[in-house]
Amino acid sequence: MTDLHRPTLRQARDGDWKSIDQLLQESGLPTADLGPDKLDGFLIVEDGDELAGLIGLQVYGTTGLLRSLVVAKQVRSAGLGGKLVGALESAAQTAGIRELWLLTIDAERFFEQQGFTIVHRETAPGVIRETDEFSDLCPGDAFLMMKKL
Question: I want to staple 108 with a disulfide (CB 3.0 to 4.6 A). Which of 18, 132, 137, 143 is the partner?
Answer without folding.
Answer: 143
